[in-house]
Fold this protein.
Amino acid sequence: LHPWMLTLVAELGPLAATGAQRPDEPAPTTLAACDDQSVSIGLDGGDLPGGPVSTVVDLRRGVEVLREGAIPATDITAALER
């Protein structure tokens, strides 16, 4: 990990983000392509390779898959039932 990011996490505590992708739009592969409203602070890592999106799960009231991505919903459900 980047030393600057490690320092930031040490000061702020854990951070969580699935990405800067807007609903129904392709995932940005550069910081410049990100929507200014969805990214307050960004570290520019250059051009990123495209890839599958994150699977987003809400566990507050059971298991609700909000967005199916690289990990299929069936795999998430099976893992949580163990």
Observations:
- Residues 53-82 form one domain.
